[in-house]
UniProtKB/TrEMBL annotation:
It comes from Comamonas terrae. It comes from the Bacteria. Its main location: cytoplasm. Keywords: Cell wall biogenesis/degradation, Cytoplasm, Hydrolase, Metal-binding, Zinc. GO terms for molecular function: N-acetylmuramoyl-L-alanine amidase activity. Its cofactor is Zn(2+). Belongs to the N-acetylmuramoyl-L-alanine amidase 2 family. InterPro entries: Amidase/PGRP_sf, Amidase_domain, NAMLAA_amidase_2. This is 1,6-anhydro-N-acetylmuramyl-L-alanine amidase AmpD. The keyword Lipid metabolism does not apply. The lineage of its organism: Bacteria, Pseudomonadati, Pseudomonadota, Betaproteobacteria, Burkholderiales. It is found in: Cytoplasm. It catalyses: Hydrolyzes the link between N-acetylmuramoyl residues and L-amino acid residues in certain cell-wall glycopeptides. Pfam families: Amidase_2 (PF01510). Its EC number is 3.5.1.28.
Length: 199
């Protein structure tokens, strides 16, 4: 295997510049999985409240289900994402990108189903329908560049695109044009295919 041109960026699927908080919610990817998709999500717990630490607790099965009425509806949920970007643009990582995180559910994109098998999930702290903050776009673009230097990603889409009718995140408040401009500015990500515009 050829040496990576960025040997300090990744170690066994973990990005060195991210805060690492390992989640038990993952499994192996199928043999030969081509990791060519990044899935963008949004999440906040309780919904619309930021900086509570509850997302990190959810992804590590440490959320107190009785701490808020909303949690009754997700009690026992075991999910994860590879990454979580806070409102301030801080990047957390929960699952090695070499492994399969549990973020997409029933899904289909670029002619393939079960997107968890061969995608990298990125959660943005936010609420579907509302806006996201500039540091989040900058952190997302930088994260995409790092991913593009290690994995053969060619596609990026929202959860709403890969699970239409079932999921709405990151929603209409997410500025795909902003992301597109930032991805286009770097050779590593310039060729990534975004979801088709729906306007
Ligand atoms: Zn989602």
């Amino acid at each position: 295997m050829a040496a990576s041109p960025y040997p300090d960026l990744w170690q066994q699927g973990w990005l060195n510049t991210a805060r690492h908080l390992p989640s038990p919610n993952f499994g192996p990817r199928p043999d030969g999985a081509l990791i060519d998709l990044v899935v963008v999500h949004s999440i906040s717990l309780p919904p619309g409240e930021y900086g509570t630490g509850a997302v990190q607790q959810l992804f590590t099965n440490r959320l107190d289900w009785d701490a808020h009425p909303y949690y009754q509806g997700i009690r026992g949920l075991e999910v994860s994402s590879h990454f979580f970007i806070t409102r301030a643009g801080e990047v957390w990582q929960f699952v090695s990108c070499d492994d399969r995180a549990w973020h997409a559910g029933v899904s289909q994109w670029r002619g393939r189903e079960r997107c968890n098998d061969d995608s990298i999930g990125i959660e943005l702290e936010g609420l579907e329908g509302l806006q996201f903050d500039a540091p989040q776009y900058a952190a997302l673009a930088e994260l995409c560049r790092a991913i593009g230097r290690r994995y053969p990603v060619r596609y990026i889409a929202g959860h709403e695109h890969i699970a239409p009718g079932r999921k709405q995140d990151p929603g209409p408040g997410f500025d795909w044009q902003n992301l597109h401009a930032q991805l286009a500015a770097d050779a590593t990500t310039a060729g990534w295919q975004l979801p088709p515009r729906q306007d």
